[in-house]
Amino acid sequence: MAEPEHDGLFREIDEELRQEHYAKLWKRYGKFIIAAAVALVAVVAGYQGWRAYDIDTRETASARFEAALRVAATDAEGAGLEFAAMAEDGSGGYALMARFQQAGLLARSGDWAGAIATYERIATDADDPLFRDLAVLLGVIHEINAPMAGLDAAALEARLAPLTEDENPWRYSARELTALLALRDGDADRARTVFDGIAKDPLAPAAMRSRAAELLSATDSG
User: Fold this and answer.
1) Contact yes or no for 219/192 (Cβ under 8 A)
2) Using CA atoms, how far apart are residues 72 and 200, in angstroms rounded to an integer?
3) How far from 157 is each of 41, 68, 94, 143, 202, CA to CA, in Å?
4) CB contact set of 200 (below 8 Å; sequence gap of 6+)
5) HSE-CB for 89 with a 13 A CA cutoff
6) Integer Cα distance of 27 and 147 in angstroms
7) Sign of dihedral through CA atoms 71, 136, 154, 15?
8) CB neighbours of 81 closer than 8 A, spacing ≥ 6?
9) 84-105 core/surface letters (b: 16 or more CB in 10 A; e: else)
């Protein structure tokens, strides 16, 4: 009569061990992947922003933007205010880049809610779909990283879903984050499916394929 109770207890312990294993994987790899994604999008944002700004105002806008970047090294709050002003009264690519910088500085100062709201504003207002999707991606990354309780992994996956489509330039970063969110939410089967797809995709960046294969092996061993 006691055996069913014992079996249930063993299953519960096994599930707790699996959840602990997946949590360790998230702790080990999550921030590394997030940092890689941020580095990638920062480079692309800078390049695309440079292409987008108005040639007629290049010199003035460039000088103002560079000055704010220098200020950011020692006075993040002051630089954030300047970037916010540039985003409001500027135009073209520099105004957009200023908004991205503003969001990053808000996060750096600990104002995660403000940073996330700023990314949401970019995702709503930006004309170029490349930057709208970039703002969604960075917003999700910051929600994952934010020290706030009650992360809704399913809701974040839903926001990332359009970015995972084959034609989207952010698809690999979005898929990697989707797999990590599934892993964090305890859905190892879904995480393995996504990691497997990345690992076998010849068009995915080599480092990302290698990381996906490693994570796939780690989840399989869980």
Assistant:
1) yes
2) 41
3) 19, 34, 30, 12, 24
4) 209
5) 9
6) 14
7) negative
8) none
9) bebbeebebbbbbbbbbbbbbb
DSSP state of 57: G
CA distances from 152 to 103, 120, 164, 206 (A): 21, 16, 18, 30
Residue the block writes with tokens 């063993």: 10
Q: How far is 163 from 220, CA to CA, in rounded Å?
A: 26
Q: Which tokens sit at 138?
A: 């960075």
pTM of the model: 0.73
What is the C-alpha separation between 57 and 69, in angstroms, rounded?
A: 18
Question: Tens digit of pLDDT per residue, the chain (222 long)?
Answer: 444 443 443 344 344 434 455 555 555 555 545 554 554 455 445 545 545 545 455 677 778 878 888 888 788 888 888 888 988 886 667 788 888 888 888 888 888 899 899 999 999 988 888 889 989 988 888 888 777 657 788 899 999 999 999 999 889 989 988 988 888 888 889 989 999 999 999 998 888 888 889 888 888 765
